[in-house]
């Protein structure tokens, strides 16, 4: 669609200049007069009773201002179940849980005091995984869910470790299996990984006569404000969140982390700002993670490859407190209906608490995890029916006007185009022999497709202000965390107003003046904030109407005689005289002088289109405003001597509706692919049998480096199905780039080795061990499925 | 923990500073907390991620692993010391052009590693850049644009010389 001037152009990011010069201010770069520093005494045990906390020696350290313990708690917080204390009292439920907090004149003194705090514990049996947690005789982390207040609807099972049960049902699953010619049934799982944002969690908090002021690299300033206001019994105008640059989010900075404990300290030390940032070791314990997951899947198909039944049960190990676990399960259970047409479906999601680190949102809200389960099933069925894996997926993939597994008649579905593109770019049709190559490597390939919804309902609002010189500032309350929103939103606004993008900038987010936005998650920012910005321009009383009014005053015409067309204000009076102002040059026109400010608000809400899913079946005519679709394919080469996997090719095809800034979209997908590769092959948080983390550092928790960026990566931006409700047709891309990556790479590994792996990650030693086992069994052929 | 301070002199970005530093404080802490040069980032505090990379007497080092008292009399260049006035360093310029920046937290460290890499090896191959930046983690980008940005800077410098 070449008629756009700004939208669809790859323009350099507006936030990059301050980032390459080091002048961008991130959370830890906040230094304030009279600032104190905090440090936290954390539990070394995963599950224990707190018998006593002795702060006597610690309080004597010079410079220590205050030490708080569990007795100082003022309440519990949580996004669904309000189950989490600010400081643990009575018992600790995970390694790293705060048992005391110190504020001191400098960081050395704060840490010195932490070392001197003596805590007596009585060890309790730790619940180390969701299997143990689900047993009837398992110790309970939380004795009674119904004792907690509920902030948002969840479905906990009292007297169990299940903090939420989700159930979705479509058609008749038993009838579906009865008419299936082939049924595959398997278990899949994956280990805990961490976002490992370069910037750890932390904030700086001041309590004074105005209330709480918090400088934080948060993804959700308005949710943070709301929860803190409730926790500290303040009104919203007494809690101010000033957002700094975010040094990586990926979901980890979506919820409250250090803010409550610092606010509790600040409450006692009025007028002194208090700062704390996690050390990397603390970050691994408390910075949030993607919990381990287990899937039991049973899928049925006809001989011709038509899918007819899909039963899928997921156990989410969400760690010690519920936090956003129910939301992860909800979103991922909806996505578990697969991007394929299946008439009979049952999905169950059990969100289970264990004595492990608290899980949270992680780029995709559970979707990469469920893709791993259902796409493995698709591969297996295709293999059993001797069908090509691409052909099988295309045969079943959803299309416009199909009914989804969630009961919706779908629109704007390009998943078939994505599967075709990913396959084409990998040259899937060319002869490919998996297994041993002449060079002695094992070669394999795989493909995976996905669907994901964006959280609905939600709302956002935007303020657009035009300055006297015609430049424009946009108060958009979604956060820039690397995804490029401070460039994309100005592009949408510039296109909408008919001016150049250089004239448009965004304003740092501060809840004191920024308008409400739900959160920066769920790949929703471009779509929601973009729509709200266009509403501020084109809506009744919007920027365009205000410009028309100002022009009509200047030209002494009726406002009805002034129109705006293609970035030009045109007035025609009754005598046929015509006046014109090009909006790009509006600052020189004189119409802005001595007038009301040109400021408009805009909103976008999905409440109206949302059809609340049926409580029993979760069927809904519109569970989400936007589905994301895509597919990725991968090729790998494995060294059979070391088990090391090299990802040689990845192709990624994503249904993005319309790319507002193609360069930004490519960046998102490229970054997503590398992160997904880490999840497939490297990253795993390893625990001992007492739920104590063994590799909580950047040496032993392996992340991809530039050495791993060798792959030939081909990206296709599929724009065949612009979203009818999206700004210029755009959909989201933040999470999708990673959604199918790990599965596609893992399938390529299975294909190369000749044996299907069912646990993620697949590390070099797993590959080597599997090869050795295969070698020792007689009926084995080396490599290739 | 000792609270005793020791006097040191540091030349940072061309300017000499006389400082009182604690024995246990790293160069990173002194740069950030005492000199307010917050462009250099703390991330892992164990020399693994490269976010705190600065040039120490012209060589790239992870400033979290160096005690400030050890480098008395040294010359340090941080990200704030690159470029001249409003004129960016060509490597910074290249990062802008190539879309190498996302959240940006790792970028100052990567640019400093890149500076040293290009000083040692003005015409690196793709693999040499991969190797040269292997000590700098980036969690947002896929490294591809970052590597291209370094390579393109080398190419442009080569063209300018020939």
Can you summarize this structure?
Chain A is α+β, with helices and mostly antiparallel strands. The mean pLDDT of chain A is 97.
Describe the structure.
The complex is a heterodimer of chains A (785) and B (162). Chain A is α+β, with helices and mostly antiparallel strands and 785 residues long. Chain A folds into three domains: 16-23 and 458-605, Aldehyde Oxidoreductase, domain 4; 31-124 and 201-277, Aldehyde oxidase/xanthine dehydrogenase, a/b hammerhead (Aldehyde Oxidoreductase, domain 3, Alpha-Beta Complex), CATH 3.90.1170; 293-455 and 614-776, 2-Layer Sandwich (Aldehyde Oxidoreductase, domain 4), CATH 3.30.365.10. Helices cover 25% and strands 25% of the residues of chain A. Chain A has a seven-stranded mixed sheet with strand order 3-7-1-14-11-12-13, with helices on both faces. A six-stranded mixed sheet of chain A has the order 9-17-16-15-10-30. In chain A, strand 16 (307-319), helix 9 (325-335) and strand 17 (344-353) form a beta-alpha-beta unit. In chain A, helix 9 packs parallel to helix 10 and helix 13 (485-497) runs parallel beside helix 14 (525-538). The longest helix of chain A is centred in the last third of the chain and has 20 residues, at 662-681. With 162 residues, chain B is an alpha+beta fold. Chain B folds into two domains: 5-81, Roll (Ubiquitin-like (UB roll)); 90-161, DNA polymerase, domain 1 (Orthogonal Bundle). Helices cover 34% and strands 17% of the residues of chain B. Chain B has helices spanning 27-34, 90-97, 107-120, 126-132, 144-161; strands spanning 5-12, 15-22, 53-56, 59-62, 75-77. A five-stranded mixed sheet of chain B has the order 2-1-5-3-4, sandwiched between helices. Chain B is globular and about 50 Å long. Chain B starts with a strand and ends with a helix. The model of chain B has no long low-confidence stretch (mean pLDDT 96). Chains A and B meet through helix 1, helix 3 and helix 17 of A and helix 2, helix 3, helix 4 and helix 5 of B.
């Amino acid at each position: 669609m070449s008629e756009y001037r700004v939208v669809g152009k790859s323009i350099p990011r507006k936030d990059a200049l301050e980032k390459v010069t080091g002048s961008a201010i991130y959370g830890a770069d906040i230094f304030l007069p009279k600032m104190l520093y905090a440090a936290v005494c954390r539990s070394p045990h995963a599950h224990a009773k707190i018998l006593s906390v002795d702060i006597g020696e610690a309080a004597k350290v010079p410079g220590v201002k205050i030490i708080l313990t569990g007795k100082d708690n003022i309440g519990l917080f949580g996004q669904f179940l309000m189950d989490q204390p600010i400081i643990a009292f009575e018992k600790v439920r995970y390694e790293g849980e705060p048992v005391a907090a110190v504020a001191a004149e400098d960081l050395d003194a704060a840490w010195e005091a932490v070392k001197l705090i003596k805590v007596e514990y009585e060890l309790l049996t730790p619940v180390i995984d969701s299997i143990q947690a689900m047993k009837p005789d398992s110790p309970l982390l939380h004795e009674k869910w119904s004792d907690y207040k509920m902030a948002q609807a969840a479905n906990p099972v009292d007297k169990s470790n299940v903090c939420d049960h989700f159930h979705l049902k479509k058609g008749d699953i038993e009838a579906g299996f009865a008419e299936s010619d082939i049924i595959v049934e398997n278990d899949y799982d994956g280990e805990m990984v961490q976002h490992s944002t370069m910037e750890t969690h932390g904030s700086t908090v001041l309590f004074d006569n105005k209330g709480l002021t918090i400088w934080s690299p948060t993804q959700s300033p308005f949710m943070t404000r709301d929860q803190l206001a409730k926790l500290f019994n303040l009104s919203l105008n007494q809690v101010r969140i000033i957002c700094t640059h975010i040094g990586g989010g990926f979901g980890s900075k979506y919820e409250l982390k250090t803010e409550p404990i610092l606010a509790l300290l600040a409450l006692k030390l009025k007028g002194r700002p208090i700062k704390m940032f996690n050390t990397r070791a603390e970050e691994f314990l408390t910075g949030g993670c993607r919990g381990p997951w287990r899937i039991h899947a049973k899928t049925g198909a006809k001989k011709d490859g038509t899918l007819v039944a899909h039963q899928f049960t997921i156990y989410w190990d969400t760690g010690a407190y519920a936090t956003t676990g129910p939301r992860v399960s909800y979103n991922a259970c909806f996505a578990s209906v697969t991007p394929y047409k299946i008439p009979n479906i049952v999905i169950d999601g059990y969100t289970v608490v264990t004595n492990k680190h608290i899980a949270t949102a992680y780029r995709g809200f559970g979707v990469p995890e469920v893709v791993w389960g259902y796409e493995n099933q698709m591969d297996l069925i295709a293999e059993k029916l001797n069908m090509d894996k691409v052909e099988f997926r295309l045969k079943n993939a959803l299309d416009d006007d199909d009914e989804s597994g969630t009961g919706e008649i779908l629109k704007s579905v390009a998943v078939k185009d994505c599967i075709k593109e990913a396959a084409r770019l990998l040259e899937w049709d060319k002869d490919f022999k998996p297994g041993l190559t002449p060079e002695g490597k094992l070669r394999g390939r795989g493909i995976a497709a996905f669907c994901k919804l964006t959280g609905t309902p939600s709302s956002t609002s935007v303020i657009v202000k035009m300055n006297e010189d015609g430049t424009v500032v946009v108060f958009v309350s979604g956060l820039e965390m690397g995804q490029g929103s401070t460039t994309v939103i100005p592009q949408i606004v510039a296109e909408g107003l008919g001016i150049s993008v250089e004239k448009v900038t965004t304003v740092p987010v501060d809840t004191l003046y920024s308008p409400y936005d739900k959160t920066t998650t769920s790949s929703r920012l471009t779509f929601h904030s973009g729509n709200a910005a266009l509403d501020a321009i084109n809506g009744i009383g919007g920027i365009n109407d205000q410009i028309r009014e100002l022009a009509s005053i200047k030209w002494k015409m009726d406002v009805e005689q002034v129109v705006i067309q293609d970035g030009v204000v045109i007035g025609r009076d009754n005598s046929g005289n015509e006046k014109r102002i090009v909006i790009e040059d509006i600052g020189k026109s004189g119409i802005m002088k001595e007038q009301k400010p040109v400021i408009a608000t805009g909103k976008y809400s999905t409440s109206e289109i949302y059809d609340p899913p049926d409580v029993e079946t979760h069927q809904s005519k519109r569970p989400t405003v936007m589905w994301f679709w895509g597919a990725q394919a991968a090729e790998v080469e494995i060294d059979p001597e070391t088990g090391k996997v090299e990802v040689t090719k990845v192709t990624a095809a994503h249904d993005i509706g319309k790319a507002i800034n193609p360069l930004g979209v490519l960046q998102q997908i490229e970054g997503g692919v590398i992160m997904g590769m880490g999840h497939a092959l490297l990253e795993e948080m390893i625990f001992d049998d007492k739920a104590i983390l063994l590799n909580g550092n950047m040496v032993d928790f392996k992340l991809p480096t530039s050495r791993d960026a060798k792959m030939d990566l081909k990206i296709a931006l599929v724009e065949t199905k612009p979203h009818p409700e999206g700004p210029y047709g755009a959909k989201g891309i933040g999470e999708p780039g990673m959604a199918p990556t790990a599965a596609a790479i893992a399938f390529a590994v299975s294909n190369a080795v000749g044996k299907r792996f069912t646990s993620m990650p697949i590390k070099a030693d797993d590959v080597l061990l599997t090869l050795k086992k295969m070698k020792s069994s007689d009926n084995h052929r080396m490599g290739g499925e | 923990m000792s609270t005793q301070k020791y006097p040191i002199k540091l030349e940072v970005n061309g300017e000499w500073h006389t400082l009182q530093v604690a024995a246990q404080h790293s160069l990173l802490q002194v740069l950030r907390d005492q000199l307010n040069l917050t462009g250099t980032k703390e991330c892992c505090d164990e020399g693994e991620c490269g976010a705190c990379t600065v040039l120490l007497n012209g060589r790239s080092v992870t400033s979290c692993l160096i005690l400030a008292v050890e480098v008395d009399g040294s010359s340090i260049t941080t990200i704030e010391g690159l470029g001249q006035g409003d004129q960016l360093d060509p490597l910074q310029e290249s990062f802008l052009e190539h879309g190498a920046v996302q959240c940006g937290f790792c970028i100052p460290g990567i640019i400093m590693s890149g500076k040293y890499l290009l000083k040692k090896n003005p015409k690196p191959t793709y693999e040499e850049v991969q190797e040269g930046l292997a000590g700098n983690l980036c969690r947002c980008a896929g490294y591809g644009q970052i590597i291209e940005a370094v390579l393109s800077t080398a190419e442009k410098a080569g063209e300018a010389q020939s």
